[in-house]
Design goal:
CATH superfamily: Archease domain
Number of domains: 1
Order of helices and strands: EEHEHEEHEEE
Structural class: alpha+beta
Distance between the termini: 30 Å
CATH topology: Archease, Possible Chaperone, Chain: A, domain 1
Oligomer: single chain
Helix content: 10-25%
Number of strands: 8
Number of helices: 3
CATH class: Alpha Beta
Length: about 150
């Protein structure tokens, strides 16, 4: 944590959904930790083996839209393909508006016996309470609909 970030991610207070705050020394690390924090709402990503790879590419005019598109793709991998992501995620973000994110996401087919189930399923990414800031480290904050 050389940049002074407070951790990888944490969950915050929200009345009905889940507020996620993710951090990184780089914007890529913050986006990576946002994906892991989202996955960890439902299962234990540290139990997922990085056996298969999925490529993800998203583009948007601003970082908020890029974060929304990125997390939506991560949710699709689980919901549409039953693909559980591991913590082995490589991300590159290029541009200054429009931005382009390319990622290599490693994981495997979801298995409740190996990966667990925490009792919540994330249905969708939202723009609710979204914030992206850089104060010595990157912090992204957003709410997911459960």
């Amino acid at each position: 944590m050389a940049c002074g970030k407070p951790g990888d991610y944490k969950y915050g207070e929200h009345t009905a959904d889940v507020l996620i705050e993710a951090y990184g020394c780089t914007v890529e690390e913050a986006f990576r930790n946002a994906a892991i924090g989202t996955a960890d709402v439902t299962y234990y990503s540290e139990r997922v083996a990085p056996i298969e790879e999925r490529r993800v590419e998203v583009e948007h005019d601003d970082l908020e839209g890029l974060l929304f598109s990125w997390i939506s793709e991560v949710l699709y991998l689980f919901d549409g393909e039953k693909f559980a992501i591991s913590r082995d995620i490589g991300i590159a973000i290029r541009g200054e508006g429009p931005y382009r994110l390319t990622a290599s996401v490693r994981g495997e087919k979801y298995d409740v016996n190996r990966h667990g189930f925490k009792g919540l399923i994330v249905k969708a990414m939202t723009y609710n309470m979204m914030e992206i800031r850089h104060d010595g480290y990157w912090a992204v904050r957003f709410v997911v609909d459960i």
